[in-house]
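INTERNAL TRANSFER SHEET
From: sequence group
To: structure group
Subject: Aspartokinase

Please process the attached sequence and return the structure record in the designated field. Keep the field labels unchanged so the import script can parse them.
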Amino acid sequence: MSNMAMKPWVVQKFGGTSVGKFPRQIAEDIINIYDKDHSVVAVCSARSTNIKAEGTTTRLLEATDQALKLGGNFKKIIETIRADHLNAAKTHIPNDELVEALERDINRECDEAIKILEASRILDEISNRTMDLVLSVGEKLSCMFMAAVITSTGRKAVYVDFSRLRTGPGDINQEFYDVLKDKMADEIHKIGDAIPVVTGFFGLVPGGLISTVGRGYTDLCAALIAVGLRAEELQIWKEVDGIFSADPRKVPTARLLDQITPEEAAELTYYGSEVIHPFTMEQVIQARIPIRIKNVMRPKGQGTRIFPENDSIPGDETPLHPPIPVSPSFVNLQQAAKGPTAVTSKSNILVLNIHSNKTRKSHGFLAHVFGVLDKWKLVVDLISTSEVHVSMAIHAAVPDVPLADALVELRKFGSVDVTRKLCIVSLVGTQMKQLVGIAGKMFTTLAEAGVNLEMISQGASEINISCVVDERDSLKAVNVLHHRLLSQPLSLH
Ligand SMILES: Nc1ncnc2c1ncn2[C@@H]1O[C@H](COP(=O)(O)OP(=O)(O)O)[C@@H](O)[C@H]1O
Ligand SMILES: N[C@@H](CC(=O)OP(=O)(O)O)C(=O)O
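Return from structure group:
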């Protein structure tokens, strides 16, 4: 078995839009190239032909909704998914035999999805488990398709379904992940010489994968596999060259960053630059495996490497003190001017201001407020408090229903007002820890540009300074901050 011939493992994760738009490039220009001197594992998300919001996972979620609605047409949605995959098979696979086998597999999966949804309609209930069963169809179809595409290039690939891996009972915690990593690696070791094409959907996760991990779970699946296999690198292939100093769609002068720390990557992800699922970093970095973000459209680009600043890679077991530079770019990074690394913005934010009616002590006030937020599953992105006042920025993508209910309960503790159509703007950078005056510079830069600050929050994370501004000022805010604090030598005086 060539996997046993000690070629280093590389785990490559392909997002849904990449599988949708560039399946042959992925097979020919990426997998087959790395396959020459690595043992490659490909992990794929459900296909999206255009954007994620119109992709297979979004459609499957809509189908589960329709199944519980009177007269809801979930079958039509599954038929759209079926037609999309049958069409992709014919378009991208120049081999009749492979196409016929794939068509049978696609039809079987889609028929099964319909049966599950019909059963849910009869029961008038969709449990977390049922939800997962339906959603996993997206990754199954995508991986069956990619395995056939790769096989059609002359390199044998096998479809690997991780949606029903049994890990035993228990909560989803580090121990659970550790067992899962080993199990995933064992399954992949069994495969031998063919390229494993693994469903980014993994189960059986207590509480359900979509409820506990959320959208973007394929990144985490790839991370767990990379750790289980002790891979040389985890590659996240996207349609962007890597992580930039700002969203390149919003800031034309944004620079590609050649290396950032996992903490920075996590902050950027939480605050609007959703380049990688935030749970990914923790698993991979503990095992000291570098993550590289790369572009499917420009496979030769270096991308962005996510790795801790003062760490060495596995196999490089020399002492960590003094820190060992792991690459020339790392040295450059160390010597570079110590400003923020990136600026990011998160839209669709509302701010809740609650002023206590002083009927209880302040700890009781905050405890009650958080009790209500917990009950209605409202996630707070930023918070700022005084003894009798609390302001909280909340992502308003949550449906309005729980918010309205939560407001009724919160009004028992004080006066509440809600400001909508806001966005969070954040400066992120590990170097900012030592940078006295950076917050002041950020806020004066915004004030000089005429951007009004609704709320300020600093200090929860030493590497993030955030504020809330009007949504209409979002583009101006990120551009002016990028121009003043990230594009030119930083002067704080
Ligand atoms: N700091 C950033 N660096 C790179 N991309 C960013 C950043 N902030 C936001 N983005 C956006 O994230 C998107 C991620 O790439 P893409 O492959 O299109 O996503 P997905 O895999 O979710 O479909 C890009 O469209 C890019 O504009
Ligand atoms: N298909 C899933 C999982 C995922 O990771 O997607 P992507 O890799 O395309 O972001 C989702 O949309 O959430």
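Handover comment: The pocket of aspartyl phosphate (ligand 2) is lined by residues 15-16, 45-46, 52, 57, 138, 200, 215-219 (CB under 6 Å). The chain is about 45% helix and 20% strand.
Transfer complete.
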